Amino acid sequence: MSDPRNHHYVPQAYLLGFADAKHQVCVRWRMKDDDAFITHVRNVAAERDFYTFVNDKTGQVDYQSFESGLNVGEIMLREALNEYLHGGDTPRETLKLRIAVGVGFQMTRTKYFRRKLERMTDDAARTWISSQRPELSEAMNSVHIRPGSDVHLKWIRDWAAILAGALLDRSWFVARPIAGQFITSDNPVYGIAGRTDALDVGVLAATEIRYPVDSATALVWTPAPGHDAAIFFTEREIRDFNVATFANAYEQAYARPDYQAELDGLRRHPDTLIDRINAMSTGPAFRKAGTRRFDAGRGG
Predict the structure, then answer these.
(1) Is residue 284 within 8 Å of residue 140, measured between CB atoms?
(2) Please, are residues 65 and 56 in contact by the beta-carbon 8 Å criterion?
(3) Nearest 5°: CA angle at 261, between 256 and 265?
(4) What is the spatial distance between Cα 277 and Cα 15, in angstroms, rounded to a whole number?
(5) How far apart, in whole angstroms, are the C-alpha atoms of residue 164 and residue 107?
(6) How far is CA 235 from CA 131, 182, 232, 280, in A?
(7) At what angle do helices 149-168 and 111-132 cross, to 10 degrees?
(8) Which residue in 10, 123, 138, 228 has its CB near the most CB atoms, within 10 A?
(9) Are 154 and 108 in contact (CB under 8 A)?
(10) What is the distance between the alpha carbons of residues 211 and 253, in angstroms, rounded to a whole number?
(11) Is the dihedral of CA 116, 122, 123, 128 positive or negative?
(12) Using one digit for the tens of pLDDT, what is the confidence trace for 112-130?
């Protein structure tokens, strides 16, 4: 029986697109040198009580409704993607709207997005305290001010709508492999600015917004007007794409188990998303990806 408090910030329904017939994926750590391993999709990209909140109307702790709503949205996204890619009766512009909204939520529901929100909240609090209560500024270096769950969930909703609008302002192309497979990660939607910088710069500043749909399909949004086509990637292009996807993993990357050798062979980018988060503020850095604690050193 599944644990209703074990919340998946990357949906299991999505990860099945990178799994084998036993619903297993190969997992490689982004920053640790541990060996890749194979496990069921239920065991990855999850955290206890990640979406838990207190219901304002009832005063009761709600463990399920927010994640359940996100999962309904994920099912709608899967259906819209399937119809867009394989044909159906729904108008293409309607499908593109549903896909943009679904992908927007996928970007904001992740642990990486939550850590960015925590970083921004902490920085805002430090700025206010240094201005209004300067005598407390030094003490702030030993604490981490974190937004409540209600703020986190509100930002998931609000930013998903903003990101969906940004996606709709762009055109896209569907990428399919001539040879090889796409991988994904616990940060499956990412924006990059050119080939010289493979790390996420955010949707609004990106020249390409990438979303591996499954092991055989990826969507890429570009600023080019009127571009809506299918492109077939060579094995080299697939590898370059996967290098960027692995670079933009927060903690883990995922691939089909029969693609483990290729996943293991991807080079690591010298910087990490933790470095990007820490660069958002001059406050004490994140210690590592899996914690919200700070220290005075460099993250990663």
Answers:
(1) no
(2) no
(3) 115
(4) 25
(5) 10
(6) 54, 10, 10, 36
(7) 110
(8) 10
(9) no
(10) 13
(11) positive
(12) 988 888 887 777 777 767 7
Res. 292: pLDDT tops 50? no
Judge whether residue 269 has pLDDT over 80: yes
- pLDDT reported for residue 184: 98
Give the pLDDT band (50/70/90) at residue 205: confident
Distance, CA of 63 to CA of 46 (rounded, Å): 14
Structure-token pair, residue 220:
């890429």
Q: Are residues 250 and 275 in contact, defined by beta-carbon separation less than 8 angstroms?
A: no
For the chain, which residues make up each domain, given as ranges? 6-295
Q: How far apart are CA 33 and CA 40, in angstroms?
A: 21
* Residue 105: both structure tokens together: 């939520």
Tokens of 108: 């904001």
The answer to whether 81 and 106 have CB atoms below 8 angstroms apart is: no
DSSP conformation class of 192: E
CA separation (Å) from 205 to 43, 202, 212? 33, 6, 20
Give the whole-angstrom CA distance, residue 182 versus residue 247: 14
Euclidean distance between CA atoms 219 and 87, whole angstroms:
16
What's the distance, CA 252 to chain centroid? 11
Q: Please give the pLDDT value at position 296.
A: 34
Q: Taking the CA atoms of the chain, what radius of gyration do you get in angstroms?
A: 19
Listed in sequence order, the residues at least 6 apart from 211 whose beta carbon sits closer than 8 Å to its beta carbon are 103, 106, 188, 189, 218, 219, 220
The backbone torsions φ and ψ at residue 74, rounded to the nearest 5 degrees and listed phi first, read: -65, -40
**Measured CA angle at 269 (ends 296, 253), to 5 deg:** 95
* All residues at 6 or more sequence positions from 292 whose CB lies less than 8 Å from its CB, including other chains: 115, 118, 144, 146, 286
The residue count for the chain = 300
Please state at what angle helix 92-108 crosses helix 65-86, rounded to 10 degrees.
140
Q: Amino acid letter at 82?
A: N
